[in-house]
Every structure is written in C-alpha cells, then in structure tokens.
Amino acid sequence: MNRITSLFGTRYPIVQAGMIWCSGWELASAVSNAGGLGLIGSCSMYPDTLREHICKCKAATDKLFGVNLPLIYPQVADHIQIIIDEGVKIVFTSAGNPAKYTSFFKEKGLTVVHVIANTKFARKCEEAGVDAIVAEGFEAGGHNGIEETTTMTLIPMVREATNLPLIAAGGIGTGRQMLAAFALGADGVQIGSRFVASEESSAHPEFKRSVLEAKDGDTALILKKVIPVRLIKNKFYHDIKVMEDQGATREQLYEHLGRGRAKKGMFEGNLDEGELEIGQVSGLIHKIKPAGEIVEEILQEFEKARAELLNLEIWK
Fold first, then answer.
1. pLDDT tens-digit profile of 75-123?
2. Any long-range contacts for 309-314 (C-beta under 8 Å, 24+ apart)?
C-alpha cells in the first residue's frame, strides 16, 4: 500500500478522472471494480441525474467511488446535499477555492481531494486541510490552468511545495507515464483521456472515434480569454482561433461559444460544431477497451517499465 491506496481503500493508486459528459456510473463503477478509484463527473448532470448515477453506481460496485465537483457549477449546493444524503465517501473538488467547502466535507466524514495547476493553490490546499491534491499539467484535456505548466515540471514543484499525498494528472495514459509520474514525486495518478476511449464511457461513439484518430499536434489550448480548454482541432476550434487572431473580445468569444458546446461534441457526437475535449495523450490511444482491461494494461506496462529501469546501467 502507498498513501493513495491507503487513503481511498483501493488496490491500485489509479484514479479515473471525473470528466464532463464521459464519466457516468458505468465508467466509475467499472474502474472501482478493477481496483482503481472511479469518479462520477457531476458538472454535466442536473441534481436528480447526479442522484440517479450515484444510486446506480452503489448498486454496481461494493467498492468506494467518488464524485468530481467543480465549484463553479451553478447548483453546487444541491449537488453537495445529494453527495451527503447518498453517503458518498470521497469528493474531488476543482475550479475554485479549496477552503470554501473542505471543512464542511471533513465535518461530514468525507475524504476531500482538490485539483490544482500551480504551487500557490497547492499551499492553499494544505492550509484548507484537504486530504490529497491532484496536480494537473496543461497536457490534460478539458479546462486547464492559465499558467500552461507541463506535468513534467508541475509535479516536482508541487512536491517541493507540500507534503500532501500527490496525484499526478495531465498527459498520463500508459504504465510508462505512470512510472514517470512516480519518479517525479507523485503518489498516484489520475487518468482521463484513456478512459474516454473505454466501452463504459458515456462519450458518443463518434467522439471516441475522433480520439482514436488523433495524432500528436491534433489538440491545442484555446479560449484563453474565457477559460482555457484543450480541444481537438475541429471546425469549432478553427472558428474560435480565427476570432482570437482577429482580436475578439471576451464577450464576443462567450457569445460564439454559447451554451452546450461540450454536450454537443462529446455526448451528441457533433464533430464539427461541438467542443471535443481531450488531452495530448490521445495520440497514444488506438483502441476502445473495457475499463478493467485498461487498468490491467497500465499496471502490466508499469511493472515492465519498472523492471527495465532496475536493469538499466547509465554509467560504469
């Protein structure tokens, strides 16, 4: 056991990210059943939908799972009440101040993890009393830190800044990358994009197909004047890029963005006009598999890479 498996009661220090429109009860329960920690992504769910997913997840697994709770969600208070009422034991908060709800969750007996993208918020997490942090590099898909700090540099900087249990995220989808994260100082990993291309993911089949077809350079960070987000370069991306190059204001970008872009792309499969949120590691994803097989594949590669390093001679 290490600090992450001990904290979550899991077999492996692997967390499945709570991704908008992709992380419902089927994926969360499958990852938890495979020995990792599954997360339900609540930001794309109305309160009643979240309750339904929590109840179905509890029926599908006797293992612990958690809920990812972006603090900017308009009905966050309703989601918090549902999480408490349904007896969820683990919550991952993001997109806000970790001090806002951590003490409340701790009083209710929950394990609290907060997602950060810089050392400043890593220290704020420690002050707020969270149990662990996720440090996410800008290779990650979806919403991202404005600093554009890579995982390779972020993880050792955060490890230097705090002794909290540290989960690395961003650009991690293989066992070799997991081993690298441990070498940088992480205690566990959070994996998103690889699980998008799983059988249990609630992503639209067309979106999954676009992930398999993505190559290096096919994703980019966009909408930096609004909220930085990493997307596959589709028509919507290029429309926004032209607007940004022409000096569009924040208000103009908001107007073009409109509502429901992520749902349109990832859940409904509109590959032209929707947001296709995925990480740079998509270039290493070539096949849709059951989540349990993905976990096993990552672990096997991790052990193989670790054995290779033990036999590595870099000087005589």
1. 899 999 999 999 999 999 988 888 889 999 999 999 999 999 999 999 9
2. 309/179
